[in-house]
């Protein structure tokens, strides 16, 4: 790839729960989006925004043990971020976002990912 070609970026979002019915309130993240834009002045620089749609019945906040991975071995920790209630999106939904910029050292293909490690209180993994 020469210096005038834009790099290919793949967008990955990890979804963290499946809700069985409306009474299930276990997962604090209902969904998330990753928006990536290449900087017009520097094609190696990207502006990344993670938008999380949260379950307001959960006591877990966006940014607790959360990271954006840039696909080249580096990452950024997402700080705890206040969510904004969005009743227009449905019952018990709030939205929080985190933005950052990152400059790659070379053109290439990178997988940008968001990982949320925290979980709502009382949620346990099922063995096997």
Structural overview:
This protein is an all-beta fold and 128 residues long. Helices cover 0% and strands 41% of the residues. The protein is built from no helices and eight strands. It has strands spanning 9-11, 29-38, 45-55, 66-69, 75-78, 84-85, 93-103, 110-116. The strands form two sheets. It has a four-stranded mixed sheet, with no helix packed on it. Strand 2 and strand 3 (45-55) form a beta hairpin. The chain is globular. It starts with 8 loop residues before the first strand and ends in a 12-residue tail after the last strand.
Shape: globular
How many DSSP E strands?
8
Whole-Å distance between the termini?
45 Å
The structure class reads: mainly beta
Secondary-structure map with pairings?
Layout (H helix, E strand, L loop, with lengths): L8 E3 L17 E10 L6 E11 L10 E4 L5 E4 L5 E2 L7 E11 L6 E7 L12
Parallel strand pairs: 1-8
Antiparallel strand pairs: 2-3, 3-7, 4-5, 4-8, 6-7
What's the gist of this structure?
The protein has 128 residues and is mostly beta strands. Helices cover 0% and strands 41% of the residues.
Labels describing this entry:
128 residues, mainly beta, 0% helix, 41% strand, globular, disordered N terminus
């Amino acid at each position: 790839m020469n210096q005038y070609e834009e790099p290919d970026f793949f967008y990955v979002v990890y979804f963290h729960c499946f809700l069985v019915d409306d009474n299930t309130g276990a997962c604090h993240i209902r969904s998330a989006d990753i928006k990536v834009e290449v900087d017009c002045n520097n094609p190696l620089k990207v502006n990344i925004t993670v938008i999380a749609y949260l379950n307001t019945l959960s006591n877990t906040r966006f940014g607790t043990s959360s990271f954006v991975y840039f696909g080249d071995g580096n990452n950024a920790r997402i700080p705890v971020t206040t969510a904004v209630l969005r009743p227009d999106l449905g019952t018990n939904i709030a939205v929080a976002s985190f933005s950052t910029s990152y400059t790659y050292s070379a053109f290439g293909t990178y997988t940008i990912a968001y990982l949320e490690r925290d979980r709502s209180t009382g949620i346990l993994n099922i063995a096997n």
